[in-house]
Design brief:
Blueprint lengths: L1 H8 L4 H30 L2 H29 L1 H24 L4 H13 L4 H13 L4 H30 L4 H19 L23 H28 L6 H21 L6 H21 L3 H29 L5 H30 L1 H34 L14
Helix pairs in contact: 1-7, 2-3, 2-6, 2-7, 2-8, 3-4, 3-5, 3-13, 4-5, 4-8, 6-7, 6-13, 7-10, 7-12, 9-10, 9-12, 9-13, 9-14, 10-12, 11-12, 11-14, 12-13, 13-14
Length: about 400
C-alpha cells in the first residue's frame, strides 16, 4: 500500500501541487465555519452569521463549475492568478467590513464575493492527477488519495476553527483561512509543469452536462449528498434523544475514519472491474449502511452503522471521479469533475433543508428511512449507468475498432 502512494507522490511536481491543494481546500471549509464564529461573536446575530455562511456556500456552488470551464479553456495558471487576487480582496474586505461595523448587506455581498472567486480546488488537483496518469493504474491511487485528503480536512477543519476561536480570537479562523487560500491558490497557479494544457476544441466547446450518461451520474451524487447529510443530522438528534449527545461527534468521526481507511485500501488495489461496476457495488454498500441506521435502536448500534456507511463513502466518490476522468472529453474534464462536487453540495443543501422538519414531525427513524430512500435512488441511477456501459460494450464488440466507453472521445 505504502509503495503505491510513494510512487504517486514521487512524480515530478506531485507533492508540491498536493500540498498547495490541501492548504486551499482547508481554507475553504474553515471559511464557512469561521464566519459563524466571528459574526455571532461581533454582532450577536445568529441569523446574520447563517445568512453570510449561506451566501458564501451558494455563490461558491454556482460559480465553481463556470470557473472550471474557464480553466479547461485557458489552463489553471491563467485563471487562478486573477482569482487569487479577487478572492483575497473579498476575504480581506469582509474582515474589514465586520470590524468597522458595516451594514449587513455589505457583509453578505463580500461573503458572496469570497465564495464566487474561490475555485473548486479538489477538481483542479484531480485534473492534474488525470493529466499525469491518464490510462495508468496509478490514477485510481491518486483519486483514492484525494478522497482521504477530503476526509482528513472534513475532520480537522472544525477542530482547528473551534480551537482558534476559543483560545486565540473569533477572527483567527478567517485570518488563517485568508492566508491558506491565498498561499495555496497562488502556489498552484505558479506550478506550470503539472498544469494540464488548455483545450481548444474549435467552435464546438459544449459542456460536460451534455455527455451521454453524465446527468444520471450527477443525480446519483445529489442523492448521496442528501442521504449523508440526513444521516449526519439525524444521528445528532438520535444521540440527544438517548441522552448521549456528546457521542454524536464520535459517530460522525466513525464515518470519516471508515471512509479514510477504505480510501487507502481502494487506492492500493489494482482494479480490473470497470468504474461503473465499482460505483454500483459501493452504492449498494452505502445503501446497506443507511438501512442499518434505520434498524438501529441504540447508540452503540449506530456506531456499527456509521462504520459500514463510512467504508462505502470513499469508494463511491473515487469510482464516480474515475468515471468522469475516463468518459468526459479532455477539454471538459475540470468542469466535469467540478459538477460532481457541486452535485454533492446540492445534495447537502437539500438534506439540510428537509431533515429538521422530518425529525420534528416524525422522529429520527423516518429521517433515517428517507436517507435510505435517497441511497436506493442513487443505487438505481448507478445501475442505469452500468447498464448503459454494458450495452455500449456489446455494441462495440460487434463493431471492431469502436471504444467500449461512453461514446465520447477522451482527448
Amino acid at each position: 500500500m505504502i509503495t503505491s502512494y510513494r510512487r504517486l507522490l514521487a512524480a515530478p511536481g506531485a507533492a508540491a501541487f498536493e500540498a498547495a491543494g490541501f492548504a486551499a481546500r482547508m481554507a475553504h471549509l474553515m471559511t464557512v465555519l469561521s464566519v459563524v464564529f466571528l459574526i455571532s461573536a461581533v454582532t450577536g446575530s445568529y441569523a446574520l452569521d447563517g445568512a453570510a455562511a449561506a451566501a458564501y456556500a451558494v455563490a461558491y456552488s454556482l460559480a465553481s463549475p463556470l470557473l472550471s470551464r474557464l480553466v479547461d479553456r485557458h489552463r489553471q495558471g491563467r485563471v487562478l492568478a486573477p482569482l487569487t487576487v479577487a478572492n483575497a480582496a473579498g476575504r480581506a474586505g469582509f474582515l474589514a467590513a465586520l470590524w468597522l461595523g458595516a451594514p449587513a448587506w455589505s457583509l453578505l455581498a463580500l461573503s458572496a464575493l469570497s465564495g464566487a472567486t474561490m475555485p473548486a480546488i479538489g477538481p483542479l488537483i484531480r485534473a492534474r492527477w488525470s493529466h499525469l496518469f491518464s490510462g495508468s493504474p496509478l490514477l485510481d491511487v491518486a483519486l483514492s488519495l484525494e478522497s482521504v485528503v477530503d476526509d482528513t480536512i472534513l475532520v480537522t477543519a472544525p477542530i482547528v476553527v473551534s480551537v482558534l476561536a476559543t483560545y486565540l480570537s473569533p477572527a483567527a479562523g478567517l485570518v488563517i483561512a485568508l492566508l491558506l487560500a491565498t498561499g495555496g491558490s497562488a502556489s498552484l497557479a505558479s506550478q506550470h509543469r503539472t498544469d494540464p494544457p488548455a483545450r481548444h476544441p474549435g467552435r464546438r466547446v459544449g459542456t460536460a452536462l451534455t455527455v451521454p450518461g453524465f446527468l444520471p451520474l450527477l443525480l446519483a451524487f445529489v442523492a448521496v449528498g442528501t442521504a449523508q447529510t440526513i444521516i449526519d443530522i439525524a444521528a445528532v438528534a438520535f444521540s440527544a434523544q438517548h441522552g448521549a449527545k456528546a457521542l454524536s461527534g464520535l459517530i460522525l468521526a466513525a464515518v470519516a475514519l471508515g471512509s479514510a481507511i477504505s480510501g487507502l485500501w481502494y487506492g492500493a488495489r489494482r482494479w480490473r472491474a470497470a468504474p461503473e461496476r465499482r460505483l454500483l457495488a459501493a452504492l449498494a454498500l452505502f445503501a446497506g449502511g443507511t438501512l442499518l441506521f434505520v434498524a438501529g435502536g441504540s447508540i452503540w448500534f449506530l456506531f456499527l452503522a456509521a462504520a459500514v456507511l463510512g467504508l462505502a463513502v470513499a469508494p463511491v466518490m473515487i469510482a464516480g471521479f474515475s468515471i468522469v476522468s475516463r468518459s468526459v472529453p479532455g477539454h471538459l474534464l475540470t468542469e466535469g469533475l467540478t459538477w460532481v462536487t457541486a452535485a454533492v453540495g446540492l445534495g447537502i443543501s437539500a438534506g439540510s433543508a428537509v431533515v429538521g422538519s422530518v425529525v420534528d414531525a416524525w422522529g429520527t427513524r423516518p429521517a433515517f428511512a428517507l436517507a435510505a430512500g435517497c441511497a436506493g435512488a442513487a443505487t438505481a441511477a448507478a445501475a442505469a449507468i452500468r447498464a448503459r456501459r454494458t450495452a455500449g460494450t456489446r455494441r462495440s464488440s460487434r463493431r471492431p475498432g469502436r471504444s467500449s466507453r461512453w461514446p465520447v472521445p477522451r482527448r
